[in-house]
Amino acid sequence: xxxxxxxxxxxxxxxxxxxxxxxxxxxxxxxxxxxxxxxxxxxxxxxxxxxxxxxxxxxxxxxxxxxxxxxxxxxxxxxxxxxxxxxxxxxxxxxxxxxxxxxxxxxxxxxxxxxxxxxxxxxxxxxxxxxxxxxxxxxxxxxxxxxxxxxxxxxxxxxxxxxxx
Length: 165
Hints:
single chain; 2 helices; Porin; mainly beta
């Protein structure tokens, strides 16, 4: 059900067709719900525009609600947190669409994996909007991850608010 919902939301959000990325010096701050298999939590990201279509940033997530393992144990702080550096290609003006939406594929390098993401932001005003993003690991640092090691090291869906600073 989660995968179906994610795909429908992504398809719908791609139909909005617009862009909110302004270019060099543009700063975006997102706060979102992080949803993945075995847990959900909060995600904070910050992107800074380096050029007309390029931005870099940092993203961190912390899982608040996590399923217990077979032994009834809960994960510790280190299992719940993830931090990544990221690179985005902001493509709204490449597709020559409205200025309210930012479509951005990108790569991220974190403490658990090297991955890719695809996101979209829709701004209602110059400073406030919504964001939706999916992420997937490309190369895991621990390919045979099991138990709590799988947290923050799998397909993830995020949805939340975006602020243009």
